[in-house]
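re: ur question from earlier - yeah i can do the single chain one, its not a big deal. heres the input i used so u can compare w yours
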Amino acid sequence: MEIAISVKSTGHTFAFESPINYEHSSGFTSQISENAKSEMELFAINGAIYDAGKGVIEWVYNIGTKQEDVEHIGIWWENRKLTDYDGVFALPVQAIILLEQAGIKVGENYRPESDPAAGEKRLFILD
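and the output i got, formated as tokens:
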């Protein structure tokens, strides 16, 4: 018996506008966009959110521009609580909103500190 498993959209999306920055390993930050249109979409195995699982947030940013691009944030959860993600910076506020709308609880240890830049798009670039 063969079981087919595929990663599909859960149907949960979140659209927003925000500044986007590159943050270099030296700590230098450069702005990509002052107010970029973005959309996040949650994908999971078979498009379902089980009590324990893994998935990915697809983040399309600079929508409708020549600079349109996409990033992915891998996520893992148990008992519908976030247990890990594949990032080097704080989990974006918008990703937290998306996960909670999908029924995945996000603990305080995954939330950004009260940083004025919290929620901005940050990409880690080696220089």
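Residues 114-127 have pLDDT under 50 and may be disordered. not sure if urs matches, ping me
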